[in-house]
Design a protein that fits this description.
Blueprint lengths: L6 H34 L2 H32 L3 H29 L1 H4 L6 H26 L6 H6 L1 H21 L4 H33 L23
């Protein structure tokens, strides 16, 4: 993005970018903490994630106010207007990422101390790592204005969908093997679905960021490999 004649305009745009980065960092820490709390039955850590959601909401409100004020005062056009409107959209997706991490944290107590099989713990942790890397990379490439990196990142959502399908099947197996697993596995299934939905929000951010930088929309079709939706057992992401 080129510099403007009015330096304060650049400063205001930079503040909005900083808030996007802060929201991206916070969403990553919330997601990581929520996953650890889930796998380690750490209720104190889960409560911290739930508390952090208020900080995320405040950052989104701050960004919205600054963006609306900038539009009213500067009346930006072309790429500048795309940047401001795109930032509002990306902030909304990041706020939803925080909500979904909070939802995972809220289920920690319900899952309880029941031992999660090592293979399943590894699968959930792997999925959370994939999702976290996706969100972080998308935000980083937006802030650094690296448009070329965004289409491959959007396509990488397919890996998250495949991992979710594998976890879904594994959880069904545990529930069929022992009815006593049903309650805990149902909560874990919702947690896995929340992770899959976070991947969808990362994809939305990638699409908005690409449009902000290039003025072009990415193709409508994108990989979607959540096979549970085919049977009607998944929910829309």
């Amino acid at each position: 993005m080129g510099e403007h004649t009015v330096t304060s305009f650049d400063d205001e745009l930079e503040i909005i970018d900083t808030l996007i980065r802060e929201m991206g960092d916070l969403s990553g820490s919330m997601l990581g903490d929520a996953t650890r709390a889930l796998l380690q039955s750490d209720n104190a850590l889960a409560q911290r994630v739930i508390s952090d959601d208020a900080i995320m909401d405040a950052k989104q409100r701050d960004l919205d106010e600054k963006a609306i004020t900038l539009i009213a005062r500067r009346q930006p056009m072309a790429q500048d207007l795309r940047s401001v409107v795109g930032a509002i959209r990306m902030a909304a997706d990041l706020e939803r990422v925080g909500d979904l991490a909070k939802n995972i944290a809220k289920r920690v107590g319900a899952v309880g101390q029941r031992v999660t099989p090592r293979s399943l713990s590894h699968s959930i942790e792997t999925m959370a790592d994939l999702v976290n890397a996706q969100v972080s990379a998308v935000v980083e490439n937006y802030v650094s204005r690296n448009a070329d990196a965004l289409p491959p990142l959007r396509a990488a959502d397919e890996k998250i969908d495949i991992q979710y399908t594998a976890i879904f099947r594994e959880l069904l197996t545990y529930m069929m093997e022992d009815p006593r697993n049903i309650t805990a596995c149902t909560h874990l299934l919702f947690c896995a679905k929340n992770l899959e939905r976070i991947g969808d929000h990362a994809t939305n951010i990638a699409e908005n960021a690409y449009y902000v930088m290039t003025g072009d929309q990415l193709p409508l079709q994108r990989p979607k490999m959540d096979e549970t939706a085919i049977t009607g057992t998944g929910t829309s992401g």
